[in-house]
Amino acid sequence: MIAPSQVLQPMALRCVSRVRGAQPSLQPRPFHTWSIVATLLLPACPHDHCPRACRCPALGHVHQLSRRVGQKKQRLSEAERSRSLPDVARTPSPEEPCSGPHTCLGPPATTGPQRSIYFLSPKDHPARLGSEFFDQPGVRLARALLGQVLVRRLADNTELRGRIVETEAYLGPEDEAAHSRGGRQTARNRGMFMKPGTLYVFIIYGMYFCLNVSSQGDGACVLLRALEPLGGLETMQRLRSTLGKGASGRALKDRELCNGPSKLCQALAIDKSFDQRDLATDGAVWMECGPPGPKPAVVAAARVGVSRAGEWAQKPLRFYVRGSPFVSVVDRTAEQMQA
Asked: According to the UniProt record, where is the region Disordered (predicted)?
């Protein structure tokens, strides 16, 4: 039996060749695959002398299909070019929290499912803070960190987020409350002497961790004292219940999850293994520019737990967001003096 294509194809080819002004021929001419499919599926032109502007249904469908396919290919080509364009580094405006000479980089190189309730998708994430942001004196960095967002990505790609609302500055060898007082440098506090943006994690009471970020100056750093939880609160609750006082069975309030240096480390699963990591490049912990808005009112008060540091114990090197319920310790006297 002769297949229909063996009959229809020569007839269609003869019609197409005549439209092009060529002599009738059964030899296939080079044209697109879709044209071949169309000529096989559509009936051949019945006219003996098919003019160039033939209105027969067969060639009419072919011309219409040609236009549609051409338009679709053009749209796909334009979409492909737009996706291939390189991302342009965003320069923050002076009103943004990470403004000034500091660098805001793009999102972290590693990607994964975003489970934070604070952001909708990876493209919605604010810019990641780069090395230049941390390269400033301790007091200035302690203030600049207020309002920025600390991000922790767990092994299952769950992301935990918290806005920094309280910090303490430690100014290096001359600071009697600093671990680097007198210029002492050991394997334990080496992170304080590394480049700005390096994490310094130390242990207190033999079981709790505290998270610091190195700043300009040898042995200078900023202690992160409290966060306002923004994303991954259920996971924070579980981690705090497993590692902290929440194990007693009482459900912790949101303001109790990260209102202390060791509490925030528990809530974000940060331990000694994070010591000496680089916040600007690490894939498991980093900082992002805080959400836009007016700058919060900041209170400067004495640091907590440094009563043996002599005159340095009373220096106003602790900074927190006035009125935030997530702060670990509120200094009413300092607030009244700075009202």
From this structure: 67-107
Domain interval for residue 288: 131-295
Distance separating alpha carbons of residues 214 and 278, to the nearest angstrom: 10
- Name beta bridge partners: 150: 162, 287
pTM of the model: 0.66
Cα torsion 108, 114, 117, 120: sign: positive
**Within a domain: 6:** no
Count structural domains, the chain: 1
244 in a structural domain: yes
Residue 237, in any domain of the structure:
yes
Q: What is the pLDDT of residues 45-74, one digit of tens each?
A: 444 444 444 444 444 554 566 677 677 667
Question: Within 10 Å of residue 48's Cβ, how many Cβ atoms?
Answer: 9
DSSP-derived letter for residue 233 is H
Closest CA to 40 of 1, 70, 10, 2: 10
Retrieve residue 294's tokens. 């007016």
Reported as a single tens digit per residue, the pLDDT across 224-265 is 999 999 999 999 999 998 876 545 567 899 999 999 999 999
Does residue 95 lie in a domain region? Answer: no
Q: Which residue has the tokens 């836009």?
A: 292
Residue 294: pLDDT band by 50, 70, 90 thresholds?
A: confident
Strand partners, 287: 150
Which CATH number is 163's domain given? 3.10.300.10
